[in-house]
Amino acid sequence: MSDPSAEAVLGLLTSLRLGDGQFPSGAFAFSGGLETLCADGHFARGDLGAFLMGQLTGRWLPFDRAFVEAAAAAHDDADRLAELDETVDALTVGDLQRRSSQRAGRALLGVHARLGTAGAADYRTRVERDGLPGHQPIVQGAMLAASGLAISQVAACAAYGVLSSLCSAAVRLGKVSHLDAQAALVAVHPALAAALARPAPPLDEAAAFSPLTEIAMMRHDARPSRLFSN
Amino acid sequence: MSVSGKGAARVGIGGPVGCGKTALLERMLPRFGALGVEVAVITNDLVTDEDARRLREKRLIDPARVVAVEAGACPHTVIREDPTLNMEAADALDRRFPMLDLILIESGGDNLASTFSLDLVDYWIFVIDVAGGDDIPRKRGPGVIQCDLLVINKVDLHAQVDVDLARMMAEATQVRDGRPLIGTSCRTGEGIDAVVDAIRREVLFADVLQPGAAEA
Ligand SMILES: Nc1nc2c(ncn2[C@@H]2O[C@H](COP(=O)(O)OP(=O)(O)O)[C@@H](O)[C@H]2O)c(=O)[nH]1
Ligand SMILES: [Mg+2]
């Protein structure tokens, strides 16, 4: 194999930077329903790998991925992003789930606006002025692409972000160890890589079905005390 | 000019759980109100919105001006490593209440190492209390040393907890190389005006912008 080009290495470095838990995305305040699943007795130490797999196959791959990639492709077309944003809004049924996705997306957009990522400040103005939702998959896809990642890297980076933030939430909930989290990631990565090697579903077929976590997120809103936003 | 580039000045209030951060807010809010300073508050309770509710229920300010941000079990992360959600909450308050002068951000309560991100605040206060022990300043926690203003609260309790207050203040001044600190009691009200004046002077530039206002 020949030496990698400087361009390829730069792409890898950009992926590492944007996918790093150190990147200030606000994601650590979201558990994606895990806090309530734990409280309701639906999650035990050995379940992390299966839980991650369920989130990938039930939600991220068949739904979020399609919008992440579409937003990446349209990262310099604010009108198209707005359209995609409204579609995600219409297709996200759970109230807390929809609000969480908006909150995480707007926070991420704010960070990129401060960092000066191309298009971020403009889209942020539109979100504030026109009341666009600012959903996470849209902002994520657009900002990762505007930061210089190719579409395949955008998808891997966004998927990794979801897995990593769920692992981190599970560790902070005291349910799994840091080594459990690594083992779970090792277990699901081959399936993720294989799925990403196939094309994303077309937008008009994008649909999510992960009833247990969706119900958990609905129930989360009513919890009198909680550590996480969802 | 604020860290946000525009909008209200942002002031962090950190310190260990139970040192009196919310009590300090409860004491300062009426004082700011009387001085005509427009204030909003962000709380970072560990377990949702206990502090936010306490402030809203007491009606010390318009309840809509109190916002709770969840800390994801990580009170230091939300003010230091990843203050994104707090910055977003502060931006939203600026948009909603364009007349704001000041946004006070109470941390969820953490250890002596917690500091505020310089992207989040223009100025930050670290609160400790005499009941936590007079050796706290000597431990040289980054919070105690680096904050813009150290508040040593619960001075009313010093006799009950066998703390030599004068010595504790002197040691704190020493580890801080003489930078400001104020002893307060949120029980009796002692020192509260001095904290309010420090914020007005250092952050709102009241002495420069409103000459004569210092005597008000
Ligand atoms: N005696 C005394 N008690 C105080 C003082 N300030 C706060 N407290 C009490 O200390 C406890 C914790 O105060 P709180 O404001 O909730 O602390 P926080 O966790 O830092 O926000 C409460 O019971 C307060 O009434 C003070 O100056 N003197
Ligand atoms: Mg408090």
TrEMBL record, chain A:
Q: Name one GO cellular component term.
A: cytoplasm
Keyword Chaperone tagged: yes
Recorded GO terms, molecular function?
Answer: nickel cation binding
Cell compartments where the protein resides:
Cytoplasm
Q: What is its main location?
A: cytoplasm
Any Pfam family matching the protein: UreF
The record's keywords, sorted A to Z, are:
Chaperone, Cytoplasm, Nickel insertion
Under the heading InterPro entries, the entry gives:
UreF, UreF_sf
Q: Does the keyword Phosphoprotein apply?
A: no
The UniProt similarity line reads:
Belongs to the UreF family.
Q: How does it assemble?
A: UreD, UreF and UreG form a complex that acts as a GTP-hydrolysis-dependent molecular chaperone, activating the urease apoprotein by helping to assemble the nickel containing metallocenter of UreC. The UreE protein probably delivers the nickel.
> What's this chain's function?
Required for maturation of urease via the functional incorporation of the urease nickel metallocenter.
**Name of this protein:** Urease accessory protein UreF
Q: Provide the taxonomic classification.
A: Bacteria, Pseudomonadati, Pseudomonadota, Alphaproteobacteria, Hyphomicrobiales
Q: Which gene encodes it?
A: ureF
TrEMBL record, chain B:
* The keyword Chaperone belongs to this UniProt entry's keyword annotation: yes
Provide the GO MF annotations for this entry: GTP binding; GTPase activity; nickel cation binding
**Which SUPFAM superfamilies does this chain map to?**
P-loop containing nucleoside triphosphate hydrolases (SSF52540)
Which locations, inside or outside the cell, does it occupy?
Cytoplasm
Domain named CobW/HypB/UreG nucleotide-binding: which ranges? 11-181
The yes or no answer to whether the keyword GTP-binding is present is yes
Q: GO CC terms for this protein?
A: cytoplasm
Q: Quote the InterPro entries the UniProt record gives.
A: CobW/HypB/UreG_nucleotide-bd, P-loop_NTPase, UreG
Q: What does this protein do?
A: Facilitates the functional incorporation of the urease nickel metallocenter. This process requires GTP hydrolysis, probably effectuated by UreG.
Name the chain's protein. Urease accessory protein UreG
Species of origin reads Acuticoccus mangrovi
Task: Report the gene name.
Answer: ureG
